[in-house]
Amino acid sequence: MGCSILVPDIVPSPIRDAETLRKSFKGHFLGLGTDEKAIVSVLGHRNASQRKKIKEAYQQLYDKSLIDDLHSELSGDFRKAVILWTYDPPERDARLVNEVLNSWMHDITRLQVMVEIACASTPDHLIAVRQAYCALFGCSLEEDIIAHASIPVQKVLISLVSSYRYNKQLVDHSIANLEASKLREATRTKQLDCDELVLILSTRNIHQLKATFECYKQNYGFSIDQDIMNCGEGLLESILKVVIRCIDSPEKHFAEVIKGSTDGLGTDEDSLTRTIVTRAEIDMMKVKEEYVKMKNTTLEYAVADDTSGYYKEFLMTLLGASE
């Protein structure tokens, strides 16, 4: 199992959890302050389905949005983490993508969010994200990519988010060998936005692509991501490298993101929060294993060392380290 959150064997009813959250807010209304520990204790130990039922119960009981009340009661990185966690996963990811597209800077740190959703999620989740995006923002995700992303990157991103990959373990080794040669031709000629490369990376199933990447390395002596980065240091090369990593080993990619967000001076809280919140119910246990291999220390230690307060407590809870 890759999920890191700890859900109790006996879970209170959604109504009881909603009441507990409301009580945690009422202290603020009475001038006693918000009970942040109660918020962490409830939401940090519930899965997506349970959190959705809590939100529905809260709305029915108090005729108020739980998200809105969390926004009013909390602040800073703790608020952002709790609210991202409380959203339904498709809505959360749609909002993350919209935030990226509407930011003033489109660097790899931001744009890789879209690649992660397209290449390290199930096909059904990607469809749900696109549907949520339309409902929330009144246009398709593809339309906003066209409006905000530069041309070479735009082509790759649209192809990735529009795809619906086959989700079973099916590999044709002759196709893997053939398409490895096509990818090699693209990297050799530095035509990284060519139709064949984009089509292969955006439509083939994950297992087929892993076989293709292995053929590439065996036949040409270098991994495809190495050859892509040898083509240049632009945004397109960086995007394609993330595509390869998210397909080939998403847990390594997310361990790298956390490493990058905590290494050196300062902390990239947005990347740290996004990674823990989006992967806690998917593959965080594998991410933690990869992090230990990279840094020879635990991910929990890195997060605890770089964060503080209830923000730290909440992230540690999602990592399964709250006890």
Short description:
Helices cover 72% and strands 0% of the residues. By secondary structure, the chain is mainly alpha-helical.
Please supply descriptive tags for the structure shown above.
single chain; 323 residues; mainly alpha; 72% helix; 0% strand; elongated
Verbal overview:
The relative contact order is 0.12. It contains 20 helices and no strands. Helix content is 72%, strand content 0%. It is mostly helical and 323 residues long. The longest helix has 16 residues, at 14-29.
Largest sheet report: none
Low-confidence stretches: none
Please report which band the strand proportion falls in: under 5%, 5-15%, 15-25%, 25-35%, 35-45% or over 45%. under 5%
Rg on CA atoms, Å: 21 Å
How many helices? The count is 20
H/E series: HHHHHHHHHHHHHHHHHHHH
- Cα distance, first to last residue? 19 Å
Outline, from the CA principal axes? Answer: elongated
Helix coverage percent: over 70%
Arithmetic mean of pLDDT: 95
Based on DSSP secondary structure assignment, what is the total number of beta strands?
0
Structural class: mainly alpha
